[in-house]
C-alpha cells in the first residue's frame, strides 16, 4: 500500500512539474515574441452574410438577455441570420419561442431550431444549425454571454485574409467583484487570454477555440470534418 501511495505521489509531483515548465515556456515566449497588435482591416462595403448560433439548454434566467443583446449587434439586418438552437426541457423553450416571434415581427432573420434528441449535446446542436444556415461566417455565443453591439464590426473584417479561419475574442466579466471565487475565476480567464492564447498565436502554436464568443469561417469547420 505504501508503495502505491509513493507512486501516486511521484506521478502527482511530475504532473505539477510539467505544468510549471509549461508556464515558464509560455512566459519565455511572451517576453520573446512581439505583442499581438494586429491592425484591424477596414470594413468592406460588401459585407458577408453572418450566422449567429445560440446553443441553449435549460437557461431560463439568461435566455432573454442573450437574445436581446444578440439582436442589438450592429450589422445590416439583411446580412444577419440568428439561430436559437434549443435542447431545453424546461420553460426556456417557451421564453425563446416568444422572443423569436417578437424579433421576426421586427424583420429579423431569426429561427428557432429544436432537435428530436440531444445527440452530441452542444456540438450536435451546432452541427444541426450549420446544416441549414446560410452564413459564410458563424459566430457562437453560450447562453451566459452578453455580446457587445460592436462584436461583428470588430471581428468580421479580419477575414479579408483568406488564411484566417477563426477569430476568438477575449471574455470580460459581469460579476468579477461579486466574491473571492469570481475574482479567482476572472484572474484565471484573464491569464488564459492575455498570456496563453496571445503567446500561442504569436509563436505560431496550435490555438484553441474556447467554444463561445468567437467567429468561424464556415468552410474551415466543414474542412475540419464538421
Structural features:
2 domains; Spore Coat Polysaccharide Biosynthesis Protein SpsA, Chain A; 6-stranded mixed beta sheet; 14% strand; 226 residues; 6 strands; single chain; alpha/beta
Account of the protein in words:
The protein has two domains: 50-169 and 210-223, Spore Coat Polysaccharide Biosynthesis Protein SpsA, Chain A, CATH 3.90.550.10; 172-207. It contains seven helices and six strands. It has helices at 2-32, 63-71, 92-105, 121-130, 151-155, 180-203, 218-223; strands spanning 50-56, 80-86, 109-114, 137-140, 166-168, 214-217. It has a six-stranded mixed β-sheet with strand order 3-2-1-4-6-5, sandwiched between helices. Helix 2 links the parallel strand 1 (50-56) and strand 2. The longest helix has 31 residues, at 2-32. The mean pLDDT is 90.
Multimerization state? single chain
Largest sheet: 6 strands, mixed
What top-tier CATH class of the largest domain fits best? Alpha Beta
Shape: globular
Beta-strand residue fraction: 5-15%
Write the CATH fold name of the largest domain.
Answer: Spore Coat Polysaccharide Biosynthesis Protein SpsA, Chain A
CATH superfamily of the largest domain: Spore Coat Polysaccharide Biosynthesis Protein SpsA, Chain A
Put simply, the count of helices is 7
Per DSSP E runs of 2 or more residues, the count of β-strands stands at 6
Low-confidence stretches at least 5 residues in length (pLDDT < 50)?
A: none
Average residue-wise pLDDT: 90
N to C succession of SSEs: HEHEHEHEHEHEH
Radius of gyration: 21 Å
CATH architecture of the largest domain, by name, is: Alpha-Beta Complex
The residue fraction in helices comes out at 40-55%
Assign the structural class, choosing from mainly alpha, mainly beta, alpha/beta, alpha+beta, or little secondary structure: alpha/beta
Strand order of the largest sheet: 3-2-1-4-6-5
**What is the total domain count?**
2
N-end to C-end Cα span: 47 Å
Amino acid at each position: 500500500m505504501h508503495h502505491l501511495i509513493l507512486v501516486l505521489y511521484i506521478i502527482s509531483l511530475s504532473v505539477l512539474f510539467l505544468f510549471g515548465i509549461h508556464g515558464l515556456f509560455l512566459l519565455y515566449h511572451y517576453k520573446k515574441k512581439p505583442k499581438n497588435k494586429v491592425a484591424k482591416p477596414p470594413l468592406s462595403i460588401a459585407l458577408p452574410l453572418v450566422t449567429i448560433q445560440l446553443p441553449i439548454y435549460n437557461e431560463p434566467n439568461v435566455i432573454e438577455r442573450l437574445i436581446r443583446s444578440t439582436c442589438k449587434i450592429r450589422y445590416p439586418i439583411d446580412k444577419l441570420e440568428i439561430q436559437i438552437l434549443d435542447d431545453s426541457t424546461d420553460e426556456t423553450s417557451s421564453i425563446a419561442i416568444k422572443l423569436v416571434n417578437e424579433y421576426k415581427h421586427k424583420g429579423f432573420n431569426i429561427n428557432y431550431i429544436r432537435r428530436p434528441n440531444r445527440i452530441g449535446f452542444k456540438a450536435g446542436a451546432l452541427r444541426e444549425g450549420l446544416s441549414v444556415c446560410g452564413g459564410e461566417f458563424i459566430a457562437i455565443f453560450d447562453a451566459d454571454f452578453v455580446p457587445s453591439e460592436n462584436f461583428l464590426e470588430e471581428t468580421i473584417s479580419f477575414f479579408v485574409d483568406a488564411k484566417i479561419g477563426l477569430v476568438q475574442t477575449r471574455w470580460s466579466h459581469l460579476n468579477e467583484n461579486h466574491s473571492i471565487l469570481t475574482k479567482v475565476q476572472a484572474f484565471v480567464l484573464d491569464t488564459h487570454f492575455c498570456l496563453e492564447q496571445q503567446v500561442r498565436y504569436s509563436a505560431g502554436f496550435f490555438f484553441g477555440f474556447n467554444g463561445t464568443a468567437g467567429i468561424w469561417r464556415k468552410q474551415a469547420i466543414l474542412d475540419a470534418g464538421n
